[in-house]
Amino acid sequence: MGEALQPSEVGIQGVLLFRPPPHEDARGSLTEVFRRAWVPGAADIVQVNLSRSRRRVLRGLHFHRTQSDYWVVLDGPAFVGLYDLREGSPTRGRKAELTLDPDREGPQGLYLPPGVAHGFYAIAEVRLLYLVDAYFTGRDEFGLAWDDPGVGLAWPTRRPLLSDRDRANPPLEEALSLAPAFDGAG
Taking the model in full, what pTM does it have? Predict the structure, then answer.
């Protein structure tokens, strides 16, 4: 426990994927899923949320100008779609797609810096624990159309279950005007 973990990169600068090892014994296992030291320069976590999504639900794409997220899928699998909106980022305009499946790969942590649009599709029922470095006020909540052709994410379906908010998210060009400048730190 407590050892340094080397994250995997997913193709978008500052997005980090952690695969923490479980510590098992005859009783079961314990997995340390987050340690602030794993993300140098990151702000402290101030709020932890638990999201439960039925199969076929798509949440997103969402992004923040100042808040970072750290996701841990507790039950899944979840197909994750990411898109770098950050002005000045070397990976601006790049997408990434991955599947987080704790039943097959164990728990994984996904660090998402501000300005990276993120969403997930519940392949089966998903419970997502997400840790954030800013209290929720609604002022730093933005969206991007999940199916914008300019983003080009290959979601597992074209007919997901969406919230009214996600159904009304704006196209890529409008979202780009709201994205933060990239400072190179994350």
Answer: 0.94
